[in-house]
């Protein structure tokens, strides 16, 4: 106790004064790891010695637990341990002003037990630090990816910037829930058409699918999955009748635009998209197998379109006239003929069918395929759809076709009941079974 005669009288509890005096002596002997049995009283009043940037008080009751005190008075529990490679690590545990010593010791003991079993008790903390915010992921990963892999990336970027980032930008990816996404979609739907809102929903779904595929830390599910698409009351199931098609054929033949007849016929013969036809090149055509290779379609994949004899004849007619690598080039620029609205509009007016769009030619193609009995899954492959649901939207059977089918069935039944059996028809007491001949 004679040493205490030199200890300053600070008005602090005796055990604190004793410990601070030991630190003073330790510093003179260049000892940098003062130890003591921590008590709650000591922790509540612990201070950092003047002139020190910090001081660590190591607990003798639980090896590895320490109290770090800063000049500001902030007191924090830490755990010092050796990892699986034998390296000394130090991890922050709790604010000593919030968590008491008993709880800190208990939690530290559990973490030490995990370490002894070869586990990492701080794995969750490490993971949290690597989870990006929505804005960071869009900026650093998603946009650079779609810029080089998606032709319509500018539209996606605009939708994210205007309608998603203001709401979700600061959220960490692993904290975004389905409720967050629903709120964004609902907000957008108040001022937009259902088709636009559905596109936004698709953009968000694709973004999270990419994050999952790239193993972004912390993300385990797609919060935008299984959200119902908005029904569009204005969505049309429009395709040309045979009479309308004949009228359009006549109108394009009279067009002053040299390329319009070829472009429209190619669209109808193949069911391709406008941009796919506009950017088609002669090197994409395999004359031997009668296939058209589209390098990247809307789904981002290479696909092959079968070319009918009519499509091959059209290309053979056009080939000698061509001076460009592009099949349907603008005669003036020899570049892709992407804008022919004026000539198209003139032709459809001449045909008396002003309520059709270029894309309705694709719809017409799909409907005709189904009407002649081509299975829906084959139609899906021809059109290059990634999802069968998309094909089903295009492939509506016309009312006339359905009416004709039901009339044929009724005719079979009536003929059978009158006793005029057709080949392969069997009548029993309880049923009429119609079999193919």
UniProtKB/TrEMBL annotation:
Q: Which GO terms describe its biological process?
A: DNA integration; DNA recombination
Q: Which UniProt keywords apply?
A: DNA integration, DNA recombination, DNA-binding
Q: Is DNA repair found in the keyword set? A: no
The organism's superkingdom is given as Bacteria
State if Iron-sulfur is listed as a keyword: no
Query: What's a Pfam family this protein contains?
Result: Phage_integrase
Q: Member of which family?
A: Belongs to the 'phage' integrase family.
Q: Name one GO molecular function term.
A: DNA binding
Q: Which PROSITE patterns match?
A: TYR_RECOMBINASE (PS51898)
What protein name applies here? Site-specific integrase
Specify the Tyr recombinase domain's residue ranges. Answer: 235-407
